[in-house]
Amino acid sequence: MSARRTIVVGVDDSEAAEAALEYALDAAAAQGTAVRVVSVFGLVEDWPLPFTRRSSSSVAEATGLIERRLRDLVGELVAARPRLAGVPVDVQALLGAPAGVLVEQAARADLLVIGHRGRGALASALLGSVGLHCVLHAPCTVTVVRTIAVQARERARAARLALTPAPIGPALA
Question: What confidence category does residue 126 fall into, taking pLDDT thresholds of 50, 70 and 90?
Answer without folding.
Answer: very low
